[in-house]
Amino acid sequence: MADTARLDLGDKVLDLPVIVGSEGEHAIDIRTLRAQSGYITLDDGYSNTGACESAITFIDGEEGILRYRGIPIEDLAAHSHFIEAAYLLIWGSLPTQEELSTFSDLLTKHQMLHENIRHHLDLFPSNSPPMAVLSAALNTLSCFHPEFLQIEDAETFHEAVARIMAKVRTIAAYSYRHAQGLPIIYPHPEKKYTENFLHMMFSEPYEEYNPDPELAKALDLIFLLHADHEQNCSTSTVRMVGSSEANLFTSVAAGVCALWGPLHGGANVAVVEMLENIRGANISVQDFVQQVKDKKDGIRLMGFGHRVYKNFDPRAQIIKQTAETVLGKLQIKDPLLEIAEELEEVALQDEYFIARKLYPNVDFYSGVILRAIGIPKEMFTVMFSIGRMPGWIAHWYESRFLAASRINRPRQIYTGPTLDNYTPSENR
């Protein structure tokens, strides 16, 4: 007999099914609650609400565990790369050599933008926020690829995925070049995914940019670590928009808009700005930490703590090592990294932060790496978007084709005025 949860509501007793996930997570199934009782649940921010069942990513926040399709993030970071991880997330298993080669060839084939899209984007002011450009361009793809507005089979989906994954980096590089007043650099047919993106970002017509392999590897790792993270704000947005049967281009464009918010994708920017402020104010890390503890106006410890992780963010431990490797190999003396390392050491030994389980998250070190690569702050969230694209695509597909298709429609508790009469304007 299946487990149930008994709910006493006045003279009614409801037995609600208990659902158990493959990793032992328990949930009370309340899909029939309103029909049986007239009640709904209230969970502001959805911290205790399972919006869906998903087979894509598993997180255990208490133990600091993150797995893509069952594979620990540590293994993927050590042995895989972004495109292989993207394939894993989207299609559910690691690709064979032939499957990976076919997917990579498709990305190369579809990496160019239609020239009319480029001309369209030329009309944006040079100081346009890159995330606005990215969202607009992804939406615009639906105009140039109407054949993908309705996806009914695996082959069509495969082709649509290749176009989005290939073109998102081209769009991102273009938005940067446009903002700088630099000529656009077209994709190189023989370069791999991340290396090609750096080529489009930093090459010149008269001089090709060849990044240090460690830099390309570090950026690829950032993409991989951000590829999916369960039901976060932007992913939930993609699933929400997709539930209306909106097309894939529009749905991921909505994900970009959600990610744009400073409480989501802008966190690594906030970390760098915090480190810059510490340096600019010429105060010690100890004094800054004390200001945080004293809750001084405007002083916050950025890059620590996470909505889900109540332990170390496993991605943070990986990316810290990468930051040290990159800066060490390139002999880059970044004072912000030194401040970051001291801040981490001080905070992790302070009972104030220990008691609140505030540990470094992935944003704490990713900004330092992006600085070393030469990526400006205004492009940090765009980097996040490129990395998160396979997760958004995977969730869109899962919610549309592998789960019960139903438009998302949350309820609310109304707190406004009760019934009132209309008063004509002359009597008000």
Structure characteristics:
three-stranded antiparallel sheet; globular; Citrate Synthase, domain 1; Cytochrome p450-Terp, domain 2; about 425 residues; mainly alpha
Molecular structure report:
This protein is mainly α and 428 residues long. The protein contains 18 helices and six strands. It has helices spanning 33-37, 73-79, 82-91, 97-109, 115-122, 130-144, 154-180, 193-202, 213-225, 233-242, 248-259, 267-281, 285-293, 314-329, 335-348, 351-355, 363-373, 380-401, and strands spanning 4-9, 12-20, 26-28, 57-60, 65-68, 71-72. A three-stranded antiparallel sheet has the order 1-2-3. The chain has a three-stranded antiparallel sheet with strand order 4-5-6. Helix 14 (314-329) packs parallel to helix 17. The longest helix is centred in the middle third of the chain and has 27 residues, at 154-180. The model has no long low-confidence stretch (mean pLDDT 92).
Number of distinct helices: 18
CATH topological fold name of the largest domain? Citrate Synthase, domain 1
Largest sheet, spatial ordering of strands: 1-2-3
| Oligomeric nature of the chains | single chain
CATH architecture of the largest domain: Orthogonal Bundle
What's the CATH H-level superfamily name of the largest domain? Answer: Citrate Synthase, domain 1
Rg to the nearest angstrom?
24 Å
Q: In whole angstroms, how far apart are the ends?
A: 63 Å
Q: Flag low-confidence runs.
A: none
- Tally of individual domains: 3
Characterize the largest beta sheet: strand count, sense, and whether it forms a barrel: 3 strands, antiparallel
Beta content comes to 5-15%
